[in-house]
Each structure stands twice: as C-alpha cells, then as structure tokens.
Amino acid sequence: MPTMNFFLSALLLHSFMAAVLGKEASHIIMHNGGGYPYASPPPPMCPPPPPPPPPPKCQTRLENGRRTLVGFTGSVDRNKYISDWRGDDPCKFNGIRCAEYPDPEKQRAIAGIDLNGAGLSGKNRTPLLLSGLLDKIPELTFFHVNSNNFTGGIPSEITQYKYFFELDLSNNKLKGEFPKEVLQSSQLVFLDLRFNRLYGPIPPQLFYLKYLDVIFINNNQFTGSLPDAFASTPARYLTFANNQLTGPIPPSVGASKNLVEVLFLGNHFQGCLPYQIGLLRKATVFDVSKNNLTGPIPRSFGCLESIRYLNLECNQFYGEVPETVCQLPGLRDRGNFSLSNNYFTQVGPACRKLIECNVLDVSNNCILGLPNQRPHGECSHFFSNIKPCPNPKSLNYVPCKKYDPSSHTHTTTSTPPAPLSYNSLDPRLHR
After folding, report:
1. What is the pLDDT of residue 418?
2. Which positions, given as ranges, span the membrane (predicted)?
3. Ramachandran assignment for 313, one of left (phi > 0), alpha (psi -120 to 50 degrees), beta (any other)
C-alpha cells in the first residue's frame, strides 16, 4: 500500500514538471530568448514623438479691426474703393495699413486708414458717420478721409488712442463748433479740417498741443479774433484762410518762431501789422491778402530773411515800400511779392528792379509814374480818411542787423516748388 502511494506521488510530480517546462519553453520561443544571457538583445525602442507645435499667436487686435471694417461696409453705398474689404486678412484691404502694435504681445494691428478721395456716401442716403469706424480701432496712428461725405461729430474715443498722430477730415460735411475731441488728442502732429462747415471761435487750447506741426482749418466759417495763445503753437504750417476771422493779427504771432508758412488770406482782419512779424526768421510764406488791414509795411519785414512768398494784396496798406524788403534774397531770386490793390505811394530802386523782373506786383496803387495805378481822385479820397496806426514808432523798429545786399550773390536758381500750404486751398489735394 505504501508503495502504491509513492508511485502515485511520483507520477503527479512528473506530470507537474512536464507542464511547467513545456510552458516555459513555449515562453522562450515566443519571446526570442525571454531575456536570458545567451539570447539576442531586444531591438532599440522608437524615439517619442515630438511635442505638438505651440498654438498660433492670438491676433485679437487684427481680428477686431477686420470685423470693424467689414461691418462699416454695411453702412456705405456700393463703392469700388472698398469693394475688396472682405476675407480674413484686413492688411490686404485697399487703403489699410498694418503694423506690429508696440506692446508686450506685439500683435499685428490696423495702424492706419487712408480713404482719401474715395467718395464714400451713406447707404440709401443715410448719414455717413465717423462713429462705427474711427471709434472702434484704438491702434490707429493715422486716419485720412479727404473728399468723402462724412458728417456728424468726431468720436471721443480718439482722445484715448496712444499713438494717434494724424487726422485728416478735410472736404467732408462736418458741422458744428471746433471739435473738442481734437483738443484732447495730445499726440496729434497733423490736423486737417479744411473745407467743412465748422464755425465759431478758434479755441486757445489748439495752440497748446505740443506736438502739432500742421494746422489746416481753412475754408470753414470760423469767427472771432486770433487768441494770444497763438504764440504757444509749435506748428510750422498754418492755414487759416477763407474763414470769417476778425480783429488785428496779434503781436504774439512773432513768438511762434517755428512758423514756416502762414496763410491768413480771405478773412476780415483789421488794423495794422505788428512789427513782431519780422521775428519770423524761418518763414518762407506769409500771406494776409484779401483782408481789411491797413497802415505802412513795418520795417521789421526786412528781417524776414527766409521769405519767398509775401502777399499783402487787396488790403488798405499805404506809404512807402521799404527797400530792405525788396532786397531780401528770397524775393530777389525768383520769389513772389504782391502788393497790388492797395494805396502805396512810393517804391525805391530795389523795388523797381523787382517790378521789372515781374517779381513784385504793385498794380492798382497810388504810385506816380508807374502804369496801372488807381485814379488820382480815388487816392485823394482814401488819404483824406486814413487813420494812423496806434503805435507808429513801432513801425520803424528793426529787430535784426540791417541786411547787407552785397553779402548775397544774386543767382538764377530755378523757381522753387509751390509751398505746401497753398496746396491746402485745393479741396481735393491731400497729404
């Protein structure tokens, strides 16, 4: 009986070992050695996949601008100028300029809008407003819309635009007093409001904008006198022509020493010219034609060493034309000097030479011995009613060393280009 038990136990052990060895052999065959020392090494593992690319930079500024432009087209009559304002890239739209906005994110943004000469009108004869366009793109640096049909007010949002430098709303249909929003746009360098329907006084704050270089507000309906704050302007180009301004030209004009071109023509200025105008040493253009000014030409005008265009025509000036003015190099060398339609009585040799060269126009004055002068009776009537200037001694003040014409060699240079400010008298000419 014990022998039988042992035999049974041995048989069971043999079966168990066979099963174990068979299973392990199968594992070795399937796994090519199973990691035993005498087996071949496993193949190298594949490198991990590269990390996914970073998501594209969010261009929310550009997208917001695009939506504004596309939305604006819905308020405008069909117009070829903005017919391509569709699609995903506003930088390709006609009249749109893009740039990188200078903030830490450095997103692309709409930096400028140029719709000069586009002739845009409101859809179905509705008013075409600046709001909805100018007030929705805070990244703007310039906004030029000469010769369109914009009306209404200027959005106050522009006062918060950090890099807004140029505003051209000329030749539109803007109405009302001088826009206060402009006065709060402290970064402005270029301002063009000409050929609109603006009225009222010119606010003194305009002349305190410390970066303003160009002021074109001609051909509106501005009234009142020029404020003394005029002296504070840093501007080089001023065009106040063809308004309804009155009063004298203030002596403070002489403190605006950056002035290069000044157009006061076509207003109702009165009184005598202040001698301080002679302090404008950089001025190349000075035009007060078609006003109600009177008195002699101040001798300080002989200090206008850069002047090339001097226009005093169509006023009530009288007396002698200073020889020092006619000797100025800018006028001698193909300048433009007009004194026509006044009451001047005398010109010296230097002035007569300019007349012969067709530089100086003295037609319709009271100068004996020259052709094309006023009738004697008309001159006599005028001189029987003239009023002297309030400070006649100042007219002889010369705030510079006397000009020596021998120090300047006469040249025959070509005619200089037309001044920039005279371009402003054409409504469709623009920056």
Report:
1. 73
2. none
3. beta
**Paired tokens of 299:** 């001798």
Strand arrangement, sheet containing 221-224 = 175-177, 197-200, 221-224, 244-247, 268-272, 292-295, 316-320, 343-346
How far is the C-alpha of 88 from the C-alpha of 135, rounded, in Å?
A: 21
Mean pLDDT, residues 118-132: 95
Could you tell me if 330 and 308 are in contact, meaning their C-beta atoms sit under 8 angstroms apart? yes
Nearest to 273 by CA among 290, 297, 255: 297
Q: Under 8 Å CB-to-CB from 72, ≥6 apart: which residues?
A: 85, 132, 133
Q: What pLDDT shows up at residue 402?
A: 62
301 contacts 327 by C-beta, under 8 angstroms: no
At 8, the amino acid letter reads L
DSSP string, 324-364: HHHT-HHHHTT-EEE--SSEEEE--HHHHHHHHTTSEE--S
Question: Whole-angstrom Cα distance, residue 79 to residue 77?
Answer: 6
Angle, vertex CA 190, rays to CA 68 and CA 206, nearest 5: 105
Whole-angstrom distance, CA of residue 416 vs CA of residue 332: 12
Q: What is the DSSP string of 32-43?
A: TTTT-TTSPPPP
Q: How far apart are CA 157 and CA 135, in angstroms?
A: 5
Longest dimension (CA), the chain: 171
Dihedral (CA of 208, 209, 211, 213) sign: negative
Q: Is 193 exposed, middle or buried (0-12, 13-18, 19+ CB in 10 A)?
A: buried
pLDDT averaged over the chain? 88
Helix, strand, or coil (residue 123): helix
Amino acid, single-letter form, for residue 264: F
Name the pTM for this structure.
0.83
Average pLDDT, stretch 18-35? 41
Which of the residue ranges 98-107, 192-201, 271-280, 350-359 would you say has the lowest mean pLDDT? 98-107
Structure tokens at 357: 């060269």
